[in-house]
Each structure stands twice: as C-alpha cells, then as structure tokens.
Request: fold
Amino acid sequence: MNNDSLHLYDVKQLILLFNYQYRTDKGEEYFNIPLSISRSRRTGRIRYIYSNESLIATLKPTDGHLILSLKGAERFLKIIPTPASRVVVDSVVESVIREGRNVYAKHVKSCDRAIRPLDETFVVNDKGELLAIGRARLNGDEMTVFKYGVAVDVRKGVESLNDEEKNEP
Reply:
C-alpha cells in the first residue's frame, strides 16, 4: 500500500462524490475515520482509499465512481438508513448470492426504488445482513416487477471475504 499524503481537498472531494453517487448527505459521517490513500503513479489521482490498513473503496478511473469494498459496504449499511442502495433477496438464494452469483429479478423481494441502472448496490437478506455488492442492471421499479433477467451483476459476495480472511497469516 502506497501511503500518499491526504489533503483536506481530497477528503472534501470524496465526501461530495459519495453524497452525489449515493444520493445522501452522510458522506462526512462515512469518511469521518482515519483515512489513507494510494494514488495512480501516472496521473496522481486517488485510486484506493484505506482505513486502518483495510481497503474501503476504489475510485474507478474510467468514470470516477466510488466502488466500495465489502468492508466499505458494511460501513455504508451501518450509517445509511434502509432502503438506500439496497436490494433485498429471497432467503432461498441467499447462499448462492454469498458465493458471488448474480441476482435475478424473480428473487428480488424489495429494493430502493431510486436505484438506476449502473448504480452500485448492496444485496442484503431480510435481516439487513450484507450478502454481496454489485452493479444494478435494472432500475428499482423493474427489479420488483420483472420476473426474469439479471437485476444485479454481483461484483463480490461475502463468502469471498471470508475466504480471504482464512488465507491471511
């Protein structure tokens, strides 16, 4: 991890981006933790955001969006009230989603109606526990109405986080 200097401007930029992307005003609370960053060697732009040596987010260079890691998503779920950016799935497919499989529309029980296609979403169960993070293919209304097709392209399931923790020394 490359510990580059973190300026007040960088923190404000992250807060504004978080607030815009997740349609909230909780960015200041989300980033009110010890942060360190890693910058791109070529461009000097922020690429990775860490808290206590754990990756919490990545800034995508192609579109500038924040991609929260599983640890970052867990922090999001604690701070941001339900149903923001959440997709609640059937308990029948919970284990499959944990492994990182995509969420199909027929398995969506409820979701944030403000979700738009290509939004970063958090797949949770009925209890609000994080199952996976991914990118929406459908908007919030379509997810609950459609009975076929992929609703969320899962980027990472929580089982992969557990596997990584087991492999650490």
